[in-house]
Amino acid sequence: xxxxxxxxxxxxxxxxxxxxxxxxxxxxxxxxxxxxxxxxxxxxxxxxxxxxxxxxxxxxxxxxxxxxxxxxxxxxxxxxxxxxxxxxxxxxxxxxxxxxxxxxxxxxxxxxxxxxxxxxxxxxxxxxxxxxxxxxxxxxxxxxxxxxxxxxxxxxxxxxxxxxxxxxxxxxxxxxxxxxxxxxxxxxxxxxxxxxxxxxxxxxxxxxxxxxxxxxxxxxxxxxxxxxxxxxxxxxxxxxxxxxxxxxxxxxxxxxx
Length: 257
Hints:
The protein is α/β, with parallel strands linked by helices. It has one domain (4-252): Rossmann fold (3-Layer(aba) Sandwich). 44% of the residues lie in helices and 13% in strands. Helix 7 (159-178) links the parallel strand 6 and strand 7. The longest helix has 20 residues, at 159-178. The mean pLDDT is 93.
């Protein structure tokens, strides 16, 4: 059975893509699902978050996988050959690598945009796949959306994100129309929400009134997430009783029902 494939997508940096990817994946694994994370961002934040100090010991990364798609002499590498077990049960990751930046132009010029989909279509050892994307609508992001069942769009409650949201929805619509008819926006995730602040409440209410797919669970703004990043521990493992841990749990349950 092919696993559910979710892409976390936003062209703006700092909106919480990596944080949301890793924490939802951690919840999935904790619930007994065999979970794979694919880090398509050359900045490697998701890779660092889940592997911590072990990040440099792995030989096979996503860059090796895409190299295999370019050069037939070394054979097309199976993406599962680049998957590594994290320190969390049921949770594996295909690590990113800075070399992805150098590969992007070559991959795009040789029309390799469907290779990720072809590889993920063959997966049967996982129940869920979460894909983190770069803060750009580039080759890697488009490849992810072509391969996905759904996408999640983080929204960090500022006016710039509000204005950019329509472009993001247009990007998804473009992929849906041209390449992946099954692709849907599963939801807009309200992130870094401050319930007592007027502007975030106003912006979120406007999205709801426009009938956009805003998920019911909001993720609070908290300095605790920095400690989570620093210790390479998703919130549910760092502090299960923290408010943000409960919110990630509720968000996972909202998506999984």
